[in-house]
Write a structure and sequence with these properties.
The chain has 160 residues and is an alpha+beta fold. Helix content is 22%, strand content 48%. 26% of the residues are buried.
Length: 160
């Protein structure tokens, strides 16, 4: 019985600290929206490294995003693009901080952050981009107003 109690305690501690660590990396796993007169707003909190990481949706499926105003387009790792069923379009040469690599043009029918919805967003399938996190670049951000103050960023989409 004591072994069973210890096993249960270890399991619960692992779950708690795993969830806590994930919330530290992505404090915006659940994004809430506020409505105003003619706009929708989403407030994001930065993580411990000062990055804005959030969970959004691409074509109705959840995707983790890192907001990157230095990226021209939304960039999606190849493994994530395959899960989303994105088609590879024309090849393009990408200039990144790590040098040049190859990517493929694609279009996201629907990109959603909270209640903010963007349609027909230009994107790239980036085989050289590792991990499960997509970069939310300027092809999406230019459609929004955004303001950063301290550890928060406010995204606003006009609805009129």
């Amino acid at each position: 019985m004591l072994i069973l109690a210890w096993a249960a305690a270890l399991f619960l501690a692992t779950r708690f600290f795993g969830d806590w660590e994930q919330r530290q990396e992505n404090p915006n796993m659940t994004v809430t929206s506020q409505y105003g007169d003619g706009y929708i707003e989403v407030q994001l909190m930065s993580n411990r490294q000062g990055h804005f990481v959030m969970t959004g949706k691409v074509n109705g499926q959840p995707v983790s995003f890192l907001l990157d105003t230095g990226a021209t387009d939304v960039a999606i790792p190849e493994a994530v693009a395959q899960k989303l069923g994105l088609t590879r379009g024309a090849p393009v040469t990408l200039s990144t901080a790590n040098g040049r690599s190859e990517g493929f043009r694609t279009t996201l029918d629907r990109l959603q952050i909270g209640e903010i919805v963007l349609t027909n967003v230009r994107a790239l399938v980036a085989p050289g981009l590792g991990g499960e996190q997509a970069l939310l670049g300027m092809s999406a951000m230019k459609q929004l107003e955004f303001t950063q103050r301290g550890g928060t960023m406010l995204l606003r989409q006009t609805t009129k």
